[in-house]
Write a structure and sequence with these properties.
With 94 residues, the chain is α+β, with helices and mostly antiparallel strands. Helix content is 37%, strand content 22%.
Length: 94
């Protein structure tokens, strides 16, 4: 799980979501999403995958209304999930 603090909270009724946890998706949760779209941080691809891997669970509509800096931060986390551990920058430190 990766936690991220939102620059701009997401309003859901009377509640404000200020923090999200993103977990690494399983292969089946990526059905219908091109991996290249996730690597390129395509907004449509992120709008489909983020509701599947966030806590609290976001809707596609809420993802579409996210601050662009928050969406970029989430996209960086998601694209990092696609890298094998050996390719991650801190892999040599482990």
């Amino acid at each position: 799980m990766n936690k991220m603090t939102l620059d701009t909270p997401i309003k859901r009724g009377d509640t404000e979501i200020t923090e999200l946890s993103l977990r690494k998706p399983l292969a089946g949760e990526l059905r219908g999403i091109a991996l290249t779209g996730l690597i390129q941080m395509d907004v449509d691809a992120l709008a489909k995958v983020l509701p599947r891997i966030t806590t609290p669970v976001l809707t596609e509509h809420e993802v579409g209304r996210m601050d662009i800096a928050d969406l970029m931060q989430a996209g960086i986390v998601v694209s990092g999930f696609l890298l094998p551990n050996a390719s991650k920058p801190d892999a040599s430190l482990a």
